[in-house]
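Let us work through a complete example step by step.
Step 1: write down the sequence.
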Amino acid sequence: MRKCLLFVALLLVSQLEYLKAQVMFEAPDTVCVRQPVQLNSLVPGIATQYWGFCSGYLLNKPVGTNMGKSPFFLDGIKDVEVVKDGDNYYGFAISGGNSAFERIEFGNSLSSAPTVTNYGTFNNALPDNLNSIFVLKDSANHKWHIFITAGNTVANSVMARIDYTDSLNTVPNIVNFGNVGNVLNGPQGMFIAKEGTKWFGFVLNQATNSLVRMDMDTNISLTPKLTDLGPIGTFSGPRDIAAIRDAGKWYFFVTSESGNSIERVDVGGSLNITSAPPSTSLGNIGGLFFGPNGINLIRDCGSLYAFVTQRVSHELVRVEMGSVTGPYTATGFGSVGGLAAPTGISRMIRDRDNIFAFVANNSDSSISREVFAQCTNSTIPYSTTKKPPVYSYTAPGTYNVYYAINEGTPDMQVDCKLITVVDIPPMQISNDTTICQGDTISLRALSINALSITWTPSYNITGVGDVDIRAWPAYTTQYRILLPYSNGCIVDTAINVTVRKINADAGPDRVLNDGTSTLLGGPFTSTGIQYSYTWSPGQYINNNIIPNPTAKPPFDFTYYLTVRDTAGCVDVDTVVIHVGCNDLNLPNAFVPNNTNNSSTATFGLANKQLVKLNFFRIYDRWGKEVFNTTDPTHQWDGTVNGDDAPMGVYVWEADGFCLSGQRIQKSGNVTLIR
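Step 2: predict the structure and record it as tokens.
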């Protein structure tokens, strides 16, 4: 599964020094909504990579879910911690009411419903009045250790350690140190780290407002030596401690529940201190602190944050730090996730694109899960390729790009960057449009604040850098417009010009014999219900509104075909018909009185250019004349002396002159059909 911590175990995000990675990728600082974004990795030779384009961002408000009291077995929960072991996540929680310890198994996702193992009191080896918990892994022997403090007086204050092997999915052992040297007095909060080859830890004495140092030399499995460094600054009921190393120096941040404030302790360059270090009260930042309890620290995308639980106001507060020494601003989130007198808060864990924290609710013994979740405002949520695909953001805001390489290996590296997405500046852009082929259209792209304008392609336009252009594309074309702005926003938009192609094909010019007909129209005429057709003039044509009518002109004639579509686009084509008089044209059969086809109801000359007919005679099979005329338009109706002529084959002969003066003589036969 695609799961990893933002920082490897060595760093322990909420507690230890943040080691800033090299700049691992290039990304713009500011873009517009829908502006294409192309990220570029700067790291060569990587095995795996993961890009999150819309990762959880700590300046957003978290989404909280109360996981309830069940399936937990706690009474008066005091503290909770979450870590990753291999591919799986584990939580640990302690309660003050029944002094119980339990392991919470999330599997490979902190979003999943957990299963719980209740260890109870380890057969009464676990002390009463549990207060705080700290989980760490020794990188030398790869074993897990969990330190626990308990008690509220010198008499009942103790420290214990629960030891696992190299896996948290094993049965642990417990060691109860008691109150070593009677130094502990209401111990609250812990921080433990390895500096060089030696282990040091720190615990707050709530009863005396003092800081206790733990020394374990080079072996964390030894019984710690405790030293009370004395009261610190203006501590007033200190509850929890978080630490960070910045620019070679250690700093502790301590919550003071009674004083409704946070104290910064300037430890210096080494944890091996022998006296109380100087401190500074940060006061009640923004007036938002009401019983501050648990605290954690996280540096994400180069910024440092503290998250504080409020036992009195049942709230979660975020403290934004300009630097480790300030300035500080606070933001209250309210009771996100059903907080109920919250005490402890776990470290922040980035699970790729989501950041999780868990809060212990003391009054109802429930646990709340707080998530700074991956947003949904990028067109692509993530990528696993070295050169990720181009994507864009769909809404204004600040978005966190997260980049991890070689996950799960010792040389894993992580980098992130914030991209500001702004609204598209005011502009005038022509709408998509449709034109007829051969037409010219005016287009506009105007934005007063744009540094320049570029039209592409330069195909059939008047100018690539003009606000107003004229375009006359011969085919459908998308004209892209690039508008850069001084804030880094680049608008890359487009105008689609759809060209409606319409074609009129009247067919090739042709030569006809006098009296014959021809089919008009060619194969390239646009067809479909969106087209209409008109042939003009409408003479000597059987239908002038269809693509392929039949024409029978008596002399040379020119026809115009006009094709229109529903958008009003028009195309026109012509065909010239030359009619020649060099033959006599007659049908070879006819049906007298044919009511279905009047053209075959009589028999005669079809020619229209005969100026004189010497004779046109028809004979029956025995040579008897049945019809005779000198009128070119007179035709035989199939009767002889008023009676119907019988079916059969008849012979005809004709002699006449054309308009050109050419004499035509011809004979043939015709079949009379009844």
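Step 3: interpret the result. The chain has no helices and 52 strands.
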